[in-house]
Fold these 2 entries.
Entry 1:
Amino acid sequence: MRHLLSTADLAKDDAILLLDTAAQMAATQAREMKKLPTLRGRTVVNLFYEDSTRTRISFETAAKRLSADVINFSAKGSSVSKGESLKDTALTLHAMGADAVVVRHQASGAPHMLAHAGWLDAAVLNAGDGMHQHPTQALLDAFTIRRHLVGGGSDAGTEGTDLAGLRVAIVGDVLHSRVARSNVRLLHTLGARVTLVAPPTLLPVGVETWPCEVSYHLDETIERAKPDAVMMLRVQRERMSGGAGGAFFPSAQEYSRKFGLGSRRLARLPGHAIVMHPGPMNRGLEISADAADHARSVIVEQVANGIAVRMAALYLLLAGNDAGAGSVPNERTSL
Ligand code: NCD
């Protein structure tokens, strides 16, 4: 594996190797000294053309915990606002000796272009492109699901395991969600059964060809599918023309009533079920404050797990070949 562009490119073995490596990385993060020397002397560039809080900070933290040099580049305040093209930006990063480029871009396909146009000689990691893919988010979600629903809250005994037999409901604005697209693919590869739940106006054309079931009724899905994990999606108003979401559903109240997760629906989920959200949340719209802060919510843990997953991705892409994929340095050998 040279780049991480889409979960559709990940065979089951690749996905499990990433999750197992992330588990080893997570173990190193429980130590007092969190920093590993693995990527010393390597340069990771964070190239963000779209807003981000969690993903950008998480990639930065991951690269720093592996001792890489990190350059943060955001389109606002750079020559991009003077009209510089992606190609010229890429050539600049190449001249600066970037070993990995983490890219978030509003255009679907921009990371693919960076990886394959020949402008750069660096590993490219997709941190979200348009409405297309967000592979590290799906990996951190799968990692969180495996930890809770296979490992009982820890990584013990999860090594090499997939998600066979687990049921995951992904609920809300699927149409605009790269998180949903990435998760459907990855969770299917890992053997989970996915049900997408959304109003017909928030489902993409062609969804019937995706490897999942589709439902228009959240209550019915909770009763029938008895999901082990419920992943709520943000209503992405910025991707809706007009901005208010008005063309896609009658009103915010109606959306919450039919597709929101609150205490009443939470109480009807199986006792062991977990509640997930990639963030940022619209509290009171797709998820109530009670549900977001409930003991069953693993939303804050998803953020913590993102660091371990991104450390694993950077490690496997940049050092995996020299160091032997999957063997994370430990105190004895490398510190
Ligand atoms: C997601 C994104 O940017 O695609 N957020 C994230 O990366 N944590 C989802 C969203 O913006 O709703």
Entry 2:
Amino acid sequence: MTSTVLKEKILGLFEGMRGKSLITTQDWSLDELIATLELAEDMQKYRFTDKYAYILKDRSFMMFFYNPSVRTRQSFEVAATELGGHALFLEPKSMRLKTAKTAGETVEDAAKVMSRYACGIGIRILEDKVSCYGQGEELLREYAKWSEVPIVSMAHDTFHPCQGLADVMGYRKHIGKNLKGKKLLQVWGHGALCRSWCSVQESLLIGSRFGMDVTVASPPGYDLDPKVIEMTKKNCSLNGSKFEISHDPVECYDDADIVYSRNWMSPNAYRDGEYHKQEEIEKAMKHTDWICDAQKMKHTNNAVFIHPMPIDRGNEVTDEVASGKRSIIYDVAEDRLHVQKAVMALTMSKFFADNR
Ligand code: CP
């Protein structure tokens, strides 16, 4: 696509995307997702040139982290810099927010005030900072209700949209732009990190939106959110693609084009308003046959290996696969930067409007 055509296409969508929050890719149309990926690909091509260097000139993006991060914090901070703007790092301890246990500022007041300073607000709140599944999603939607600027999930207990976009950017580079009918294997890995459902659920949704056949494989007892599974099935059905659930740690690899291994917690992780991390780790570590290794990868259609990172090497996946020739983990980590720049440009900038 030429730069002029790309710009026209983005201009056409721009009015509809400016001010839009990103809490899950399922909230965006397929056209919006494709426009974001095409812009991200162009931004990668023209990185370190003037082409997109002033899109967020003099603007600031707030990054509000309840949990730590390597990729997300660094890539958003670099994204703001490369677009000519600035990113601020905030933690709950740097604010005085109302919680179930303490008096403080309401989300309504915080969101309205932050909107007066920032062009967008990113929020990360993961499994161990909520007392039941879905509370993180509620918090993001509450911010989106009151904020006058876009709210972007930087990973919350339910979804991780920027990771999902980066995953697909990686697939498009390595296996081609037509993903229809490609088999995405979303396979559980045993491990000691006790992960939330956000990355895998986002992957199921965006993979199925792009027409991929989806297989979710895990030991019995590791079901994901039934509403997300229903949405994934519906996406598959609309695209004429297949959806399968497997409990076989070897057969599930048959003919896969993409192997995405990742540990995730069981639905029993929350009880009595508490997150039982140690119990989940002990249970997960017993399933030693659930590791992605070179022998299992032989059953695939020369699949690429992907993981959103950080990886629990030796548990979720062997070093041989994670660092092997078909691993695209570092490309996808880099793609976080490009897709986030595109999301920020499309939803937070006046650049395209000013350059008509
Ligand atoms: N994939 C991802 O979100 O990585 P971080 O937790 O390091 O940000």
